[in-house]
């Protein structure tokens, strides 16, 4: 019990719980839209001077879920990827290249067919890793967006894959990482 005149200091255990609580709340808010530190404090209903807010933001940044933009706002990072080793990266990159092969190899004479743009596994990657492009796809299917806009976004992805960036997200054909391999990696 606190004596009269003593300053209240939360225990380290309580601080840790608060940090995780705020991290979850911050994640929820940033998934809606990017926010500055002061906007986050206001959205969470806490003081801007609350140091636990800073620790929670820092935790999310270190884990790769949040990044600070040039305008000072924090944003949620969708579809982040961690590769256990170079082999895992190469497997994912080859898988990505196969899904986007027709776009990577295309010439001006042979544009990708509509069936290429509707590839089930590519669409799974878009839905889980690129929701903004998947939204364009949905609007295209509904007939509200031109074919060329969706095709342009897919071609941008193909260029990224061509230059060594595997697709974000996942699909039914994605290589699976075994739990055993994760445990081995952690022990090394």
From TrEMBL:
UniProt-recorded name of the protein? Transcriptional regulator
| UniProt superkingdom | Archaea
Q: Which InterPro entries match?
A: ArsR-like_HTH, WH-like_DNA-bd_sf, WH_DNA-bd_sf
């Amino acid at each position: 019990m606190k004596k009269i005149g003593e300053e209240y200091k939360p225990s380290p255990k309580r601080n840790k719980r608060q940090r995780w609580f705020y991290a979850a709340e911050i994640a929820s808010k940033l998934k809606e839209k990017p926010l500055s530190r002061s906007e986050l404090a206001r959205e969470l209903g806490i003081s801007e001077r609350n140091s636990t807010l800073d620790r929670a933001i820092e935790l999310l940044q270190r884990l790769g879920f949040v990044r600070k933009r040039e305008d000072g706002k924090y944003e949620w990072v969708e579809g982040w990827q961690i590769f256990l080793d170079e082999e895992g990266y190469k497997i994912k990159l080859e898988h990505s290249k196969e899904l986007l092969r027709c776009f990577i190899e295309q010439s001006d004479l042979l544009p990708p067919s509509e069936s290429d743009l509707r590839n089930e596994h590519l669409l799974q990657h878009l839905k889980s890793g690129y929701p903004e492009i998947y939204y364009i796809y949905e609007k295209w299917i509904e007939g509200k967006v031109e074919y060329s806009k969706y095709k342009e976004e897919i071609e941008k992805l193909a260029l990224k894959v061509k230059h060594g960036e595997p697709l974000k997200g996942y699909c039914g054909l994605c290589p699976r990482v075994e739990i055993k391999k994760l445990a081995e990696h952690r022990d090394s």
